[in-house]
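$ ./design --mode recover --in tokens.txt
reading tokens...
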């Protein structure tokens, strides 16, 4: 009998064929559905297909006593408990890098949209207001402005590269300055100072205990009424209640948001505000990028089946020889 690969995602037919060489596949829609499986079946599960946006409870993982490998679809690994996964020496693969361009593209799109009012002016035209109310009010320029990147990792670097094409000045904050960056990428020692220094602040940091609500009320106050916040990271890295207030009271100029604390729920107060552009967590959602993510996530399983290690492991799940 083959071991079981339990999947929280739908697997394409051609990928099933590749995985079937090693595993019997069971797809479930959510964690609760696992409780309908017998203990014998759960004991045969050695592989789990998860996602950067699907939280896993410890109870669920405890019900899989022989779990050896998780392949997670996405670059974020915030749903996984580091101590627990390491204690069980579970291999944890993910899909970094293949989505950097796509996520950076959406960060630029949100910045341009909220500054140049693309979505709002589209609504204006559709509502017939160009005819009835006349020319649309002025937007704000992006080219040549100061851009802050909170979290200069692989995605942050791609955002900076694009922003240079817009002749923006680049500022960033990480825990430590990076030594490998161009001299014209200016390190700023704290999120508050970074917010003070820029016209646009893009959040591109992973969600960890350390970065939870790193963009808090003080950071939003430091950003101020002329500047914009863009979040393509995780909802949890921003104090969402403080952000809603800042947008309502116009203590920041606006925001472009792809991620929220309690997805797919979005604070309803945002729906009536024209100084915010909202997208439903689609930064990596193009055919090309999702195919690349899918392929890498399948390869993580195949590599594990052959060599006992995933192809690309999350940084804290590398156990050595
Ligand atoms: C999700 C993401 O993976 O990669 C990440 O961390 O948040 C996204 O790319 C994607 O939405 C699938 O759930």
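writing sequence...
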């Amino acid at each position: 009998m083959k071991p079981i690969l339990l999947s929280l995602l739908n697997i394409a037919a051609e990928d099933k064929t590749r995985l079937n060489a090693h595993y019997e596949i069971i797809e479930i829609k959510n964690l609760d559905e696992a409780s309908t499986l017998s203990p014998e079946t759960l004991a045969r599960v050695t592989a789990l297909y998860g996602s950067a946006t699907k939280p896993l409870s410890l109870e669920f993982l405890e019900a899989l006593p022989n779990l050896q490998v998780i392949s997670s679809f996405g670059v974020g690994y915030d749903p996984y408990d580091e101590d627990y996964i390491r204690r069980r020496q579970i291999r944890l693969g993910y899909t970094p890098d293949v989505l950097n361009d796509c996520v950076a593209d959406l960060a630029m799109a949100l910045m341009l949209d909220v500054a140049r009012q693309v979505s709002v002016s589209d609504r204006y035209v559709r509502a017939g207001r160009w005819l009835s109310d006349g020319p649309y009010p002025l937007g704000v320029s992006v080219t040549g402005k100061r851009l802050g990147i909170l979290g200069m990792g692989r995605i942050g670097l791609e955002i900076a590269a694009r922003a240079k094409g817009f002749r923006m000045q680049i500022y960033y904050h990480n825990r430590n300055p990076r030594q490998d960056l161009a001299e014209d990428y200016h390190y700023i020692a704290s999120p508050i100072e970074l917010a003070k220094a820029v016209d646009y602040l893009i959040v591109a940091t992973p969600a960890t205990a350390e970065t939870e609500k790193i963009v808090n009320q003080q950071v939003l106050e430091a950003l101020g009424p002329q500047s914009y916040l863009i979040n393509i990271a995780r909802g949890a890295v921003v104090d969402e209640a403080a952000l809603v207030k800042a947008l309502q009271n116009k203590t920041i100029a606006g925001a472009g948001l792809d991620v929220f604390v309690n997805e797919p729920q979005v604070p309803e107060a945002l729906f009536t505000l024209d100084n915010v552009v909202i997208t439903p967590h689609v930064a990596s959602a193009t055919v090309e990028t999702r195919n690349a993510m899918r392929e890498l996530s399948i390869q993580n399983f195949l590599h594990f089946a052959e060599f006992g290690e995933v192809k690309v492991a999350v940084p804290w799940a590398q156990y050595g020889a």
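exit 0
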